[in-house]
Amino acid sequence: MTKRQKIDPFVIQYDEKSKMLSSYSVKNDKKLSDISDFFYNQQEVKMILDSGKDPLVYTYHDKVQPEIPGEFSFGITIIYPGTIGEEFYMTRGHFHGKNDGEFYMGLEGEGILILEDQDTRKAQALYFTRNSLPYIPAGYGHRVVNVGKIPLIFLTVEAAAGSHDYEIIRKEGFGVLVLKDPNSQKGYKITPNPSRKKI
Ligand SMILES: [Fe+2]
After folding, report:
1. Within a 10 A sphere around the Cβ of 80, how many other Cβ atoms?
2. Residue 20 alpha carbon to ligand 1 centre in Å
3. How remote is the CA of residue 113 from the centroid of ligand 1, in Å?
4. Residues of the chain falling short of pLDDT 70
5. Taking the model in full, what pTM does it have?
């Protein structure tokens, strides 16, 4: 029998004040210019960038584990409040390359998790907030949108040996958009994506 690769157990802390993990291996800031293709209103994107602004849309820092099947990587994602045109700040979104699930825990703010079935390409949207634990089953593309007025902060837990496909989302988009809606009590609406590419 081949010896299984092992890592040492550990505990780290989440600091509610700084919103940071006490130990992490990767930190990434996503400004509008980094993720401009993913927003629906390209005219608005161009206007903002041409004016010299480049707002920070989201940031994450992750405790990444060695790519050993069965192990988990985890991290904190912060999506700032704001919109590009009518579309709320959001993550790019991706499908997992190896058919792994993932789960989150809401720490602060209000979010919408867009989930899209890999086989049917049907999209759905789930609301989550502090202390919610949204579960993403294997085979669902996913994106998170901040629909609140404060930063949306959540813990993410995923397979350490997993991979991410962002390009399919960049090319085709998700089936639904989450847009600001002053006529709705919730302040937002979930609407079919008119620029969704034909599958
Ligand atoms: Fe994921």
Report:
1. 16
2. 20
3. 11
4. 1-2, 198-199
5. 0.96
